[in-house]
Design brief:
single chain, 1 helix, five-stranded antiparallel sheet, globular, 8 strands, mainly beta
Length: 152
């Protein structure tokens, strides 16, 4: 056992069973990959990643108790990365993302900087034609969804 083994995270944060049931019913197919925060690794900031590879229907609205938009008391960066090795800027998806109520639609790999206090989301994944990764993180110690599971 190494002195720094606790600095590594190999899984996603555990949520209540209803989160995973809702996840199984989603038309968006993928995998919640990794989640790190100050609760899991003391001193760490919040970061999570997801792989998505298919969309088989319309995305549902957020579940009850989860606001379609929210803000944090910390800065956040959201990143979207395509898997097309011949064109890494091709996201492989069409995404609509709201900042302060303003809709932005994109199909290219990108970072989005969200300053503390800025209202953001909802996010709608409209189409998927190639696998892509979504990464989000911020300089807060954890992400609080007020007891509700995070939106997909």
């Amino acid at each position: 056992m190494g002195k720094y083994d606790g600095q590594f995270i190999w899984d996603y944060k555990q949520f209540p069973p209803e989160f995973w049931e809702r996840d199984k019913q989603s038309p968006l197919k993928g995998h919640h990959l990794l989640w790190m925060d100050g609760e899991r690794v003391p001193g760490a900031f919040y970061m999570e990643t997801h792989w998505f590879w298919d969309l088989t229907g319309e995305m549902p609205p957020p579940p009850d108790g989860v606001s379609a938009s929210h803000h944090h008391d910390f800065d956040e960066i959201q990143g979207f990365f395509g898997s097309n090795m011949k064109d890494p800027w091709d996201l492989g998806a069409e995404i609509e993302f709201f900042l302060e109520g303003e809709a932005h639609t994109f199909t290219k790999s990108c970072f989005i900087f969200i300053p503390r206090g800025m209202e953001h989301l909802p996010m709608t994944i409209k189409r998927v034609w190639s696998p892509f990764m979504w990464l989000t993180g911020g300089n807060g110690k954890t992400l609080d969804w007020n007891g509700a599971p995070p939106p997909m």
